[in-house]
Fold:
Amino acid sequence: MGLAAGSLTIRPRPGQSGFTLLELGVVITLLALFSLLTIPLFGGTRANKLAYSARCLNGTIKYLFNEAALTGREHRLICNLDRGTYSARVLEADGEVVPLSGIGRETELAGDVRFRDLQMPDRGTFTTGEVTVRIHPAGWVEETSVHLEDGSGNALTLHVMPLTGTAEIFEGYKTL
Structure:
């Protein structure tokens, strides 16, 4: 190797130029493997939005259940079936129902996900309008099944457990 005025010059050894066939084969194999793993992720974004919406709604319900128990006040989940949104409110000691900030703010379902319906055994099935799910401070939620659907007809069911405030999430449309 020769040095010329502070610069380093590297000269390849005779017979060594470029990559070997084995190195190129490994790189091509790795690129193919990465493609196989990532391309299906792009195709499943619609189903991911459906599952994401279900998980967010489930988290909000569980949060409201815990808040009701901690504060001793009734909380309410308000689902607007026409707009595809949900929000939370709390019943104050003076009887006024006020919106919650933070996690209780109005949230829109992701992408083309919409409410198909809400089923409540004591009150029936709702397909339009605003539906209120009451969460009592004594540790009880109105039994509810929330049916979500995307533009392709894929469906998920959230069945809210009255005594725990958690929701089981099922593939497809399940009735109570």
Summary: The helical segments are 21-43, 45-71. The CA atoms of residues 124 and 139 lie 22 Å apart. The longest strand covers residues 85-91. The chain has a mean pLDDT of 86.
